[in-house]
Amino acid sequence: MKILVNRVTRLRSQGSHQKGRVIAWATVQRYRSVFFRALLAMAGALSYSSNAQESKASPQNLNVILNSLEQAEAQNPALSRPYEVTRQYKVFRGHDPHPSSEVTAQIIFTPPDTKAFKIIEERGDARGGKIISAILEQEIASAKTGAKGSIGRSNYEFVFLRDQNLGAIPEYVLHIIPKRKEKGLLLGDIWVDAETYKIQQIVGVPVKNPSVWISDLHITVQFAPVNGLWIPVSVDATATVRFLGIYTLTGRDIVPPRASSTTSP
Fold first, then answer.
1. Does one domain contain both 230 and 108?
2. Of 28, 61, 136, 173, which sees the most CB atoms within 10 A?
3. Domain carrying residue 49
4. 193 touches 173 (CB < 8 A)
């Protein structure tokens, strides 16, 4: 009888412990859910606070960036020196890895706002030449407008997007919105060197189509210092040619800028 009582007591004790573990586990699960919800709420609050501070700080920082950007643009020697560059273009149709046409062009700039080009060599499909001519016409139109085509507050509205530090030099990424629908103006984004405030890259679409044969033109222009001038050194683009489909274009400067032979030194 005593053995039976001890066994019942032990079973009750085990049952009590088991019940206690079940209650403890349920309590942990309940408060774990509460804890995680609290963490999520805290993270959301911190994120909102951070975004609010960034949104509040961006306009003030944007004015500082734009002041320095416009000053750097005005001091660029490429705006006051005549020069000419030789650029090689390759045009690809669809997903074909082989170029359908290759064109070598000479671009000539005469200050303050005259830019011209001439085709030196052309091989392959003549349709590629039309795309290249449209790209060059866009570049010429931008130069022709002079100050009216420059990347500044007189021509564009700006939106601060983000800081970017993918390479050795940090950059500011700004969205640009043209104030007028004119040839030479682009809707897109610019990357600005955070140290020199020079534009490193422009990615955008013309607000006015440069050719009736071409639509959906997307342009990427890279800038770099060459012989003391801050100039475009590469152009990449995609476009839809009427009745023919999508084409891709790459253009690279193959001869550094030199004093233009069409003007006196």
1. yes
2. 136
3. 1-57
4. no
The stretches of 93-164 forming alpha helices (DSSP H) are 126-144
Looking at residue 147, its pLDDT comes to 57
pTM confidence score: 0.70
* DSSP assignment string, 157-201: EEEEEEEE-SSSS-EEEEEEEESS--TT-EEEEEEEETTT--EEE
Q: Determine, yes or no, domain membership for 2.
A: yes
CA torsion angle for 163, 166, 169, 170 (degrees, to 10)? 10
Residue 219 burial by CB count (10 A; 0-12/13-18/19+): exposed, middle or buried?
buried
Whether residue 85 is found in the same domain as residue 132: yes
Residue type, 111: P
99 by DSSP, 3-state: which? coil
Tell whether 28 and 100 lie within a shared domain: no
Q: What are phi and psi of 204, to 5 degrees?
A: -170, -175
Structure token digits, residue 10: 């032990």
Q: How many residues does the chain have?
A: 265
Strand partners, 117: 107
Tell me how far apart the terminal alpha carbons of the chain are, to the nearest angstrom: 122
Structure tokens at 190: 């610019």
251 located within any domain: yes
Is-contact 229 81, C-beta < 8 A? yes
Q: What is the pLDDT of residues 88-133, one digit of tens each?
A: 999 999 889 999 999 999 988 888 778 888 889 999 988 788 788 8
